[in-house]
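> forwarded from #structure-qc
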């Protein structure tokens, strides 16, 4: 079971293997109280635990093993270059090498890394993807989930879960920018030659649009959300709504451009082929068209379940609406764990 705990909602996706692929068994989402999670950190663990427990009960999920992911200031993702060495030597070396890249006390973080296998006989060096997460933040999630009788078997990073979700649905030989826009955080992951080249979280998201619509137009939350994604007409407020959406989306596009420019400066001869959107922000009315115009690549919304078997009791219309928001939960659900 993949569990994506965002700042405004929790998303659950239960899957099983089906031949060479996967089958979607259960799926659901539930709103969180305002302020219960901020910048990836639990602020009200009891409230979040209660929402997750209620959602599991509603979905009739018996599975206890769960994969979660982290994001925000408490997680550091950094690509580094180190000399090729044996695994045991590398593990010891990373502990000392990591200190220069981690802005926290090394004893206060959980540390992990993955060899990208970029070494050549001439260089003798390889790239590693280094990840560090603050222990107190991770432990708070583990404690909260243990209290509701769940066993956490994987702790991943949002950007990598998004990558896993994309890779089971697409041609991995293409170079792609994955952008997941949540309520208060945007994850950008650039995949080239089948490996993550850049993974970055930016503290901005689609909640700002909803709040600005509520404030300027005196709307209830649900009405503002519906107008934001274009399922409710703007009526006499078209210009105000367009201004709010364009102003916020322009900030998102600026951050996406920065990531792409960084990639191009490092790999000028290895062009990006696709730009794929997910998260609730992907559904903002007009965003994909604006992004396509500004970046010069066609932006497409991601459906992680497009070619997947599904339980017959899952409503197709509900799934279509929810699909872009489920990319991270899907990427978590397909993770293997050896216990």
């Amino acid at each position: 079971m993949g569990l994506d705990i965002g700042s405004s909602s929790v998303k659950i996706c239960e899957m099983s293997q089906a031949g060479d692929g996967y089958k979607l068994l259960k799926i659901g989402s539930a709103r969180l109280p305002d302020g219960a999670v901020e910048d990836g950190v639990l602020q009200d663990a009891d409230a979040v635990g209660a929402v997750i427990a209620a959602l599991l009960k509603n979905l009739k999920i018996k599975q206890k093993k769960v994969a979660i992911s982290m994001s925000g200031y408490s997680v550091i993702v950094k690509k580094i270059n180190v000399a090729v060495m044996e695994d045991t030597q590398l593990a010891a070396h990373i502990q000392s090498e990591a200190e220069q890249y981690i802005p926290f006390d090394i004893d206060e973080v959980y540390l992990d890394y993955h060899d990208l296998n970029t070494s050549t006989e001439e260089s003798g060096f390889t790239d590693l993807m280094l990840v560090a997460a603050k222990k107190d933040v991770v432990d708070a999630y583990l404690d909260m989930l243990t209290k509701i009788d769940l066993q956490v078997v994987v702790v991943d990073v949002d950007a990598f879960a998004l990558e896993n979700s994309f890779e089971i649905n697409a041609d991995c030989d293409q170079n792609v920018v994955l952008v997941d826009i949540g309520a208060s955080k945007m994850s950008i992951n650039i995949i080239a030659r089948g490996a993550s080249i850049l993974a970055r979280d930016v503290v901005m998201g689609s909640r700002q649009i909803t709040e600005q619509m509520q404030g300027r137009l005196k709307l209830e939350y649900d009405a503002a959300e519906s107008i934001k994604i274009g399922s409710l007409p703007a009526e006499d407020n078209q210009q105000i709504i367009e201004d709010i959406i364009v102003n916020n989306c322009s900030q998102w596009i600026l951050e996406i451009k920065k990531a792409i420019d960084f990639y191009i400066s490092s790999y000028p001869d290895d062009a990006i082929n696709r730009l794929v959107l997910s998260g609730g922000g992907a559904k903002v009315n007009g965003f994909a068209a604006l992004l396509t115009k500004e970046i010069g690549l066609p932006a497409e919304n991601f459906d992680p379940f497009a070619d997947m078997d599904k339980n017959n009791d899952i409503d197709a219309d509900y799934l279509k609406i929810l699909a872009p928001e489920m990319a991270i939960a899907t990427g978590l659900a397909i993770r293997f764990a050896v216990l």
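QC bot note: The mean pLDDT is 91. The domain at 171-302 is CATH 3.30.420.40 (Nucleotidyltransferase; domain 5).
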